[in-house]
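Exercise: predict the fold of this chain.
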Amino acid sequence: MKRANGLFPLEATVEGENGLLESLCPEGDLVYLLSGRCGIYHCLLDIVRYDKKRVAYLPLYTCETVVAPFVKAGFALKFYPLDRNMRPVFSEDALDSVSLVSVCGYYGFSAFDRDFVRKCKARSLTVMEDMTHSVLSADGLDENCDYAAGSLRKWMGVACGGFALKRRGRFARAPMPPHREHLKLRYDAIERDDMELFWKGEMMLRRIFDDFGSDDESVYLMKHADFRTIRRKRRENYRTLLENVRESENLKVVFPVLDAGTVPSHFTVFAGEREKVRDALQALGVKTSVYWPQGPLIELDGQEDTRYIYDHVLSLPCDQRFSAEDMKFIAAALNSYR
């Protein structure tokens, strides 16, 4: 089993540009940012020029770094829960009191109700999509979105992977220059494969984030990454895990069907005794991740399905660094825990 610390090395490139992000906004604007949260904030700075109500409808299962840009931009927050299949449970009644609706996929899979998004658009609400988990999937951007933002750092080796899209028209302002001290921490962490240094940079960014732009090397890597190969390898690895992981009372695959257009970011399960499973896998050299701990603005009283996700979700790697044999090793490790 290949050991991977969680940090991608800087991505290998191909000669031609891949056109990935440009293809999503042919009539709009694309900018590259230091991080996904910087991308969200850049979109919100554009939106608040005309949105005086400033009430956002966000998923209850989310990362605190996704919520933070809305708070910084002056939005009040309402949240919609999810069921145990990670499908949003929207309320049309909530639309009377909000001005912006944010949607997202999870781990490559977009399960939200597209008809609901159309209704939001018909009511002249601003629709924004966080594409961090869905950017390589065929349905990764809903056609009714006005804005989109995300990061490619879960998909490839890049120091500053943020991006922001405006589907029609241009952004009113350019991003700020990249934050040089934070930028150096990111490159040093990648060069040394140092998670401690990585988290030092992440904690700094939580304090100082703004609409910081990306750097030239990161933009080049994003434009010239071989996404065709990345897509193929991730899908092959996910399929190998599906074929070899045995579900049990204590282990359920969150997304047991891989359709033709989905590119997974991780292989994600619900583990009944999550920390014991993590410890057992760690002892075998298998790194796992928990996205995400419950953030300070997330209130789960009466939301048992969303609470279940936070308490049991566990993600394993299936990215392009790994082989089919690595996936079989991970599957065997999971199967050994009952």
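Check your answer against the key: The chain has two domains: 22-224, 227-335.
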